[in-house]
Amino acid sequence: MARSKVGSAAAAIACCLLWTTARAAGSECTATSDDCVATGTWSLSVALGAGVRTNPVVGGKDIPIVVVPQFSYYGKRFFIDNLDPGVTLFDGESNTLSLVASPGYDRVFFYRSDLQNIFAFSPTSFSGGKTSYVTKPSPSVQAQTPDAFRELSQPARRVTYLAGPEWTFKHGKLSGQLDYLHEITGRTHGDEIRAALGVPLGSVLGGSINARAGLTWKRAATVNYYYGYPGLYKPGSALNPFVKLGYSRPLSSKWRFDAFVHCERLGNAIADSPIVDRHYVTTAFIGATYVFHK
Amino acid sequence: MRLMVAAVGLLFASVAFPARNPADDGIRLQISPRICTLTGNDKECATPVRAQWRSAHDESLCLIVLQRPEVRHCWEHYSAGSYTMDLVFTEDLVFQLRDVSLDRVLASEALRVIREALQFRHKRRQPWNIFD
Questions:
Q1: Are A168 and A196 in contact (CB under 8 A)?
Q2: What is chain B's Cα-based Rg?
Q3: Closest Cβ–Cβ partner in B40, B125, B128 for A41
Q4: Is the complex ipTM more than 0.85?
Q5: Are A41 and B40 in contact (CB under 8 A)?
């Protein structure tokens, strides 16, 4: 059933890509702008401020966010956007088709030293991860475990990378992204779909407000790698929707003010895990971004 | 016969009305650098530019930059001179040596701006990314 759903989704994505590729004309990027960049150039900025990402794992501490470095390089085809390298196959006026690689996201809740936490790190980012977790009582688990809580020895969760096609587009003020990724590091062999839409809402106090909404679909194999436990809990696939509200205001040519709140609802297959005790993950940040090179 | 008349006429004209050639005055102007290349993220050239001139005999003249009216450096009764200025520019600059009344051009050189053939592409749109 899950395979047929993923197959249908993949077919839909492929159709969209073919349709947009066939329709799109050549790129209309003729100068550096908010949307366009000269090939062969790189950018680096660092956001300094205060923020937090809540941790849904039982006993897991919330992740403070103090420094958020952002780096990107764009060649004619190749690019790297923080931890995501990619190759652009087609860059049209409204649509872009790329092959990208991106790290598995869920590891951030288990290891403070995960690269994605380093890219949004706090003074404690470099500490190691935990290898055991307290489980919460759940109906299925309670039947097998008389104690409401117990300590579980957890398997290591390695760094994983996923890769696959990415379609991004812009239609008027609306921007969108759709990724179909497969795990390529041999840990989960799972698939993941990432989809999101973003739109500016308007200007307030010299800055701009933008809203985003999207979802992440993870195949059961991926969910099981992070949130399952042998003989105790074997989850199915999970669908995590999210919304984000952000505000950005230029302060000078090098500085800007940034703030956002991102709220993700964990799919039932994740939230029902005995090592998860929250249904939502909230990430919030407020601070100033310094642009070293643009 | 007609050809000969024309040739004689040209010879006479060239003797009676010699063409104005700055090099004829023996004034040589050199600028360094002569080319500025904009690459990648470069939006403008910002560089010290040195202008040097030399003449067979003493001259009273001024150095000007056509696109920079504020730049003017003059010498009186010198046979050589140099002047260095810090300039920020995005287009070609023309350096000229003129007489002190600025009416007559004695020498001229251009500093060319060459833009590397830039190609542009879209940045990655990534609304899925929390920090993007």
A1: no
A2: 23
A3: B40
A4: no
A5: yes
Asked if residue A71 lies in contact with residue A88, where contact means CB atoms within 8 angstroms, the answer is: no
Per-residue tens of pLDDT for chain B, all 132 residues: 444 444 444 444 443 334 444 445 589 999 999 999 887 667 889 999 999 999 998 999 999 999 999 999 999 999 999 999 999 999 999 999 999 999 999 999 999 998 777 788 999 988 998 887
Measured distance CA(A165)–CA(A94) in Å, rounded: 17
Domain ranges of chain A: 2-25+36-293
Provide, as residue numbers in chain A, all residues whose Cβ is less than 8 Å from the Cβ of B130: 120, 244, 260, 262, 283
Q: What angle do CA B126, A118, B127 make, to 5 degrees?
A: 10
Instruction: Detail the DSSP E strand segments found in A54-124.
Output: 63-74, 78-81, 84-91, 95-103
Chain B nearest C-alpha distance from A275 (Å): 24
Domains of chain B by residue range: 27-115
Instruction: Return the CATH architecture of domain A2-25+36-293.
Output: Beta Barrel (2.40)
Q: With beta carbons under 8 A apart, name residues in chain B contacting A74.
A: 121, 123
For residue B128, what is the nearest residue in chain A, using CA coordinates?
A196
**Cβ-Cβ contacts under 8 Å for B105 (sequence gap 6 or more):** B22, B96, B97, B98
Residue of B40, B122, B127 with shortest CB distance to A214: B127
Cβ atoms of A288 and A48 closer than 8 Å: yes
Query: Searching chain B, which residue's CA lies closest to the CA of residue A71?
Result: B132
Q: Which residues of B touch A195 (CB under 8 A)?
A: 128
Q: Per-residue DSSP letters for A132-179?
A: EEEPPP-HHHHHH-SSSS-EEEPPP----EEEEEEEEEEETTEEEEEE
Q: CA-CA distance, A100 to A108, in Å (whole number)?
A: 20
Q: Pick from B121, B123, B128: which is nearest to A177 by CB? A: B128
Instruction: Indicate the fold that domain B27-115 takes in CATH.
Output: Immunoglobulin-like (2.60.40)
